[in-house]
Amino acid sequence: MLDVCLLGTGGMMPLPDRWLTSLLLRYKGRMLLVDCGEAAQIPLRICGWGFKAIDAVLFTHYHADHVAGLTGFLLTLGNSGREEPLTLIGPAGLKTVVEGLLVIAPRLPYEIRLLELPHDQGAEFLLGDIYVGSIPVEHWMPCLAYSFEIKRQGRFDRRKAEQLGIPVKYWKQLQKGELVDLEGRRIKPEMVIGEQRRGIKVSYCTDTRPVEGLVDFIKDSDLFICEGMYGDNRDMEKAVQKKHMVFSEAALLAKRGEVEELWLTHFSPALENPQEHIASATSVFANTIAGCDLMTKNIKFKEMLKVFLDT
Among residues 151, 245, 159, which one has the least CA distance to residue 198? Predict the structure, then answer.
């Protein structure tokens, strides 16, 4: 099961009733933070999931509303007693940005590791048990969208294992994907494990126009979190000029990507009540929600959910 918390939903500047857009993911007790704008550590505290278990911070890009809160966050993390390394991930320019922010936090009790991703092509890598994908999008500086996926291998087929004469003591090794040598035979995991089962996928995208590559990138997401800087289609010209989206454009991406649910976020400060414009999105993609600060969701594996419902 994957826990998701949309810490904030604002763009450009924090408001008294709206924190800046940021996302927290939790799986098996470990966490990833996506973007860290000004005052991000306040909703992090309110959320109540803690700080010390955050293994990495991923940045979509380096405008201040996505990165200016990093220094305070790093200091708070240090004061919480953290000693294990922290990984910072982002597009081109990461090293320069982090070095500048660390001028006012020169001594931290843990190591900072940097992973700079290409901004001209996609990338895939593993953070703990979470497979992370990135894809370049269209903004005024290098900017990335991210996907987070929990993959599941197929079911172990006990009948096949018994037919092959594999002792029970080797089953666990095969379930872990390890080879087993048995009386001159080499047993491969795929000989006793079925096709990969559906996992969990969350996609996250802010500060971009709706580029075509996003459709395949977000495909079949259980949850797609996407910017909706402007609610009204009459703001389309402004969205194009500033390289953002209106609600209906995010909804069309969700529809074409065949996602299950869309959360809109990264609202303009002038957009006082995003819910007033939600119809422009739901008319395109029905399962659209105007995000709010600290919105959470627990996403279960589909087969587990079916079992719960049946019982």
Answer: 151
pLDDT score of 134? 98
Q: What is the DSSP code string of 236-291?
A: HHHHHHHT--BHHHHHHHHHHTT-S-EEEE-B-TT-S-GGGGTHHHHTT-SSEEE-
For residue 222, give the 3-state DSSP assignment. coil
* Segments of the chain scoring below 50 in pLDDT: 305-311
Q: Which residues of 181-192 are buried (b: 16+ CB within 10 A; e: fewer)?
A: eeeeeebebeeb
> How far apart are the C-alpha atoms of 149 and 177, rounded to whole Å?
19
Using CA atoms, how far apart are residues 197 and 215, in angstroms rounded to an integer?
22
Residue 65 bears catalytic tag: yes
What distance in Å separates the CA atoms of residue 89 and residue 143, rounded to the nearest whole number?
12
Q: pTM for this structure?
A: 0.87
From the candidates 3, 35, 65, 216, give the one annotated as an active-site residue: 65
Q: Count other C-beta atoms under 10 Å from residue 8's C-beta.
A: 31
